[in-house]
Amino acid sequence: MIFSYKSSKQGDISTYLFYGELIDRGQASSLLDEIEERVSKNENKILLNLADLKYLNSSGLNIIINILTKARKAGGDVAICNVNKKITELLIITKLNGVFNVCNSVEEGVAILNN
């Protein structure tokens, strides 16, 4: 299954809905370019909606960490919502569930980023 995403803006929050499997950095080059461009414009609040992401490996996890690093260096933050059970387990095993703002819904993620 191929990775793809759809982006949108809600106020000052950039939302990205992920689809498929995120397993290779090459798959996410346009995503990373878009985030780099938005962060350079001080659009540094990012919500990652993983509702339709079926699988994530260590390379995919590295991409998400990269997004978090870019946002936080620019004074922003990242929230991750709608995480499936397998990806939740991966975040717990790697102890990244304490690094990311993990929430259950888009609304929760927006509330976290607006605080």
Produce the secondary structure layout.
Blueprint: E1 4-10, E2 13-22, H1 29-40, E3 45-56, H2 58-73, E4 77-81, H3 85-93, E5 101-103, H4 106-113
Parallel strand pairs: 2-3, 3-4, 4-5
Antiparallel strand pairs: 1-2
Describe the structure.
With 115 residues, the protein is of the alpha/beta class. The chain has a single domain, classed as STAS domain (Transcription Regulator spoIIAA, 2-Layer Sandwich), CATH 3.30.750.24. It is 39% helix and 32% strand. The chain is built from four helices and five strands. A five-stranded mixed β-sheet has the order 1-2-3-4-5, with helices on both faces. Helix 1 runs parallel beside helix 2. The chain is globular. The termini are far apart.
Task: Tag the structure with descriptive keywords.
Transcription Regulator spoIIAA, 5-stranded mixed β-sheet, 115 residues, alpha/beta, globular
The CATH homologous superfamily is named STAS domain
Q: Report the end-to-end length measured between terminal Cα atoms.
A: 36 Å
* Spatial strand sequence of the major β-sheet: 1-2-3-4-5
Low-confidence stretches: none
Sheet of most strands: 5 strands, mixed
CATH class: Alpha Beta
Number of strands: 5
Strand content: 25-35%
Order of helices and strands: EEHEHEHEH
* Helix content bin: 25-40%
The Rg value, from CA coordinates, equals 13 Å
Reported CATH architecture? 2-Layer Sandwich
Mean pLDDT: 95
Based on secondary structure, the structural category is alpha/beta
Number of domains: 1
Q: Any idea of the CATH topology? A: Transcription Regulator spoIIAA
